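User: NirD/YgiW/YdeI family stress tolerance protein, Seohaeicola saemankumensis:
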Amino acid sequence: MRHLFLTAAITLVALPAHAQRDVTPVSKAERGTMVTVQGKVARILDEDTFRLSDSSGEIRVYVGPNVVPAKVGEKITVHGVVDDDPGPREIYARTMMRADGTLVTFDYSY
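Assistant: Predicted structure for NirD/YgiW/YdeI family stress tolerance protein:
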């Protein structure tokens, strides 16, 4: 039993911090908050913006000045802040995790 507990504890510590965050449905992503959303890339809007969709809706995701590192249809998890400006809701992504576990960190130079 002790061995099982230690294995579970080590596994939890080894998980990336990105994977331990609660996932927020896209429709519940509130302006001005940090969120983690999960879904599929619905559409690439331009080189640094795409639409992410889940069963609750769609939201724009901005990764600039980086280039979108995903393809339409790819399942991903995005962590970032929801812009509080008026207009369409948009997440400024800080990290993105691909389905294979690859973590992409976005560098903002401004």
